[in-house]
Amino acid sequence: MRVLPHFANTELPSPNGEPIGRLVLLGLEGVSEYIRQARTAIQGHDPIAKGRAMERSYQIVSHLLVSIQESESRESAQKLDRLYRRLLLQMAHANLFDDPSSLEDCGSIIKELRAIWQDLL
Fold first, then answer.
1. How many structural domains compose the chain?
2. What is the CA radius of gyration of the chain?
3. Is this structure's pTM higher than 0.85?
4. Residue 51 neighbours by CB distance under 10 Å
5. Which of 31, 39, 34, 8 is nearest to 120 (CA)?
6. Cα dihedral 14, 16, 19, 22 sign
7. Torsion of the alpha carbons at 6, 7, 10 and 16, rounded to the nearest 10
8. Number of alpha helices (DSSP H) and beta strands (DSSP E) in the chain
9. Residue 85 belongs to what domain range?
10. In this structure, what CATH number is given to the domain that contains residue 74?
């Protein structure tokens, strides 16, 4: 697996001028916020709000996952792939079973992802 060339060079600017790695970190912040909203919705027995928050978090994580391809940075790409897939699995479990503890596990996965991306910056 490899990170797309624009991810491998995390300082390469995106169309709006921000370095790609920084945009990924912002995306992970968005995932954290949507997971927080989903946890609140589960606790408040609000399936519509939970579904909306979970869908948005799935979209961000899925986008980040499909952006990974084969590269020289094979170890980082494999680790990112594994973590994104584990995050999607935990989010699906939380969504299906209204399980806030699975959402707590998502937080630790996101911390690992942030650490990898901060190292790449």
1. 1
2. 15
3. no
4. 13
5. 8
6. negative
7. 60
8. 5, 0
9. 5-120
10. 1.20.120.340
